[in-house]
Amino acid sequence: MATTVLDILNDVAYRLGEDGNPDNSSEQTRRLSYLNQVYRQVVRKRYWWFTEEEYSFQTVENQDIYDLPSDYREMIEVRIDGKRVEPTATFQALGSYDKPVDTYISNLDKQYYVFNNKLYLIPESRSEPSAISVTGIVVSGTTATVTTATAHGLENDDYVTIAGTSSDTFDTSHQIKSVPSTTTFTIAVASGTADPSGTITVTENNFVIKYYKSPTKLTSLTDSIIIPDIFSDVLSSYVFGRISQVDGERGDAADGFDEHNGIIEEMVIENNKRNSWGKAVRPL
Q: Is the CB of residue 182 less than 8 Å from the CB of residue 162?
């Protein structure tokens, strides 16, 4: 279960000897401000494993520029049709060619660079995935089985976009959980979801990026914290220390900041362990 803003602020209140997050709106705003400060500080210290994200979409014929997710921070990997696309330096792409998407020549099929939060393909894509007709979707529990009219060629963990149903639950992107046959695959749905109707199609999201994301600003008590629960005290200890510092409680402030720094060290060790297992280590 993900830790929420309220969980953190309640922990801060208990550390201060209070019964829970105060009702006073000004004090709530102050504590939320401190929480956002440390949240941003912690996440931007490293490229943490818990900020890794996947995003999938589709190539568009003759298109070279694609929008990146709003929370994009740093690229890990780009794949098109399952094949890795190598990066090139922005200054090389912009400085060497009048229009890189048309004139770039390389022994690689494609390369990419990121500029102004957009991804540029070199050369531009010459094709796009085709939609496949779906003959039916049957839900059982939390699993929906999609049956296609022809062989779909999809594999476990591929991403697809379903369209043409009567339900917003289905008309969006999904990750495939299993492939029972050449004309069926399964996706996860919420319990109680009904079988959809309509003239349904499925299209592979053949463009998949892995990236490090930036956290969104915390504004509500129900907002989730992306830092794993086991390390969530890294936030409450800092907020406790910050409040104590402002209130003139230097000893308590020092204790809070010492605990915060100690947890950061534990997180760095965990991050380094995860990066050492077959992954390229990003700058620390």
A: no
Strands (E) in 27-176, as ranges, are 52-57, 65-67, 72-80, 83-84, 86-87, 111-115, 118-122, 132-140, 143-148, 159-165, 173-175
Determine the 3-state secondary structure of 138 from DSSP: strand
pLDDT band at 284 (very low <50, low <70, confident <90, very high): very low
104 has pLDDT over 90: no
Torsion of CA 79, 173, 160, 156, to 10 degrees: 80
Output the pLDDT for position 93: 66
Task: State the DSSP code for 238.
Answer: H
Classified as helix, coil or strand, 58 is coil
Contacts of 66 (CB under 8 A, 6+ apart): 57, 118, 119, 120, 121, 207
Helix (H, G, I), strand (E, B) or coil at 278: coil
How, if at all, do strands 111-115 and 86-87 pair?
parallel
DSSP string, 160-179: EEEEEES-TTTSSEEE--EE
Q: What is the pLDDT of residues 29-40, one digit of tens each?
A: 999 999 999 999
Residue 219, classed as helix, strand or coil, is: coil
Q: pLDDT per residue over 16-67, tens digit each?
A: 999 999 999 999 999 999 999 999 999 999 999 999 999 999 999 989 999 9
Which two three-digit tokens encode residue 193? Answer: 């979801």
